[in-house]
Write the C-alpha cells for this entry.
Amino acid sequence: MLAYNTSMAINSLISPPTSEAELLQRAKQIAGLNLSQLAHQLQEQTPTKLHHAKGWVGQLLEKALGATAGSLPEPDFQQLGIELKTLPVNRNGQPKESTYVCTVPLKDNHDLNWEHSWVRNKLKRVLWVPIESDKTIAIEQRVIGQAFLWSPSHQEEVILKQDWEEHMDKICTGQLSTISARDGQYLQIRPKAASSNSLMTTDNEDGQPDVTLPRGFYLRSSFTQQILKTAYHHITI
C-alpha cells in the first residue's frame, strides 16, 4: 500500500486541481515521500511531536494537493466536491483510530435531513491518503501511501444514513447525554474539543438550555479498514 519511490519531485501544487484525474496525479507524485521530504518541498517545518500540532499532517496534504475549503463545512476540493481524508495506519496497514468527519450540529438542527447533512456532503466523494503512523517511526520518516478515491456504496450509505438519523433523533429530543461512542455501526459521535473549557449550548430533554462539550462525527476504524480492504487486495507496508 505504501510506495517507497522517493525519486519523484513535486512542483508547486497550491492551485486547486481541475479534475479527479489531476488530483489523483498529484497524489501519485507525493506517494512514497516521507513527511519531512514533503514538508521541505513545501517550505514547512516538521514538528517533532504531533500532540501540540494536531491537524498538521492533514494541512500539509491539503497544501500539497491544492485543497481550498479550509475549515468550511464543505468538501476540501470545493470545485470537485471531493473531501481529503488522511488515514493513519500501523505497520500492518490497519487504521490506528477513528476518522473525524465533521462537527455535530447541536443547535438549529430540527429541519436537517441526511441528504443535506454535513456528513453526507463530506463523504459523497473522498480522497483517502494512508499515512504510516506507527509510534516507533519518527514523524519526519513516516511515509505517504498510495491515495485512492472512494464513494460509499448503496449499502454503505444506507447504514451511514441510519446511524446519522439515530444520532440526530436523540440530539433533537434532548438526549445527547445518552449517546456514547459505542452507538452507530459505521458512524459514531465523540467529544470534539480542544479542552474541557470549550463548551457550547444545546437543549436538554425538557427543552431547556444546557451546556456541553462540542461533538464530532467519526467513522469507526473497523469501517475504514473495510474501505481499505476493498481498495487494496493486499495491504502491505
